[in-house]
Amino acid sequence: MFLLIVDSHIHIFHNTLFTKREWNNSTIDFKINCLDRILKTYKKNGVLALRDGGDGIFASCLARKVAREEGIIYRSPIFAISKKDHYGLFLGRSVCGIDDFKNEFNTLKENKLDHLKIILTGIVNFNRFGDVGDIAFTYDELEYMVKSAREYGVPIMVHANGCEGVSIAIKAGVDTIEHGFLISNKELYGMAEKGIIWVPTLSPLGNILDAKDPNFKNQLNIIKKVYIIQVKNIIKAYEIGVKIALGSDAGSYGVTHGTGIFDEIRHFQHIGFDKNTVLKMDLENGSKALGV
């Protein structure tokens, strides 16, 4: 039986085939060849639907075209929107406020974004438990961006961690929350109530823990604590009806393109989900996240 696998969170520009400098100085043929090699790996493994989290070099924009030739469904935000002097510039472009956003959103529309990617908070701090960075945008700014995407007709993908960040993302009515580490039952019930899809990306932390990665030997205890909380939240979320989609964050440290989603499936199985349940979540909720 043929089985379609969806990876609901990747970053194709993070890979071993080129650096940002090489990309910027290369020919279009080189770019297409690199992207095609990556996409062929996905295709070989039956991963035929991908949702990118954006980049600052238009790699995912080009990958969308290459993917079409390979028969792969590919969704790209073109680039992510972050706040100036906050986390996330490497994933796209930073803005100072609404006026800046308007200009960048026009560029996104010119390139036919599939979804708007907003970076609302930082990432998990492996050196200080509980720290996920500042909330980058005010609620009014977030609400304006969400409304703009709604009016244009595309869903909103939000990188958010911590109770406060995820809470305001829920209040603003986003479509998917990416990562969502270190949150509480309140946010889980909020996602369930509003039908927001959660992409909890276990692989980046789980793979480090599985490998007992020596590069993180002084941080493994905090990584494990965060991971355990995420696992408990996933189990609770499933019980109360949160739509959970599987995204590996492929391209991030220790998560390989083409196989990262199988790491994600494995992590879900290890925390108690049977394989059929995981594959059903991956296909049904992943398809919703991609708008398939």
Automatic annotation (TrEMBL):
One protein family per Pfam: Amidohydro_1
Domain of life: Bacteria
Amidohydrolase-related domain mapped to chain residues: 5-292
Sequence intervals crossing the membrane: none
Name used for this protein in its record: Amidohydrolase family protein
Source organism of this protein record: Clostridium moutaii
Source species taxonomy: Bacteria, Bacillati, Bacillota, Clostridia, Eubacteriales
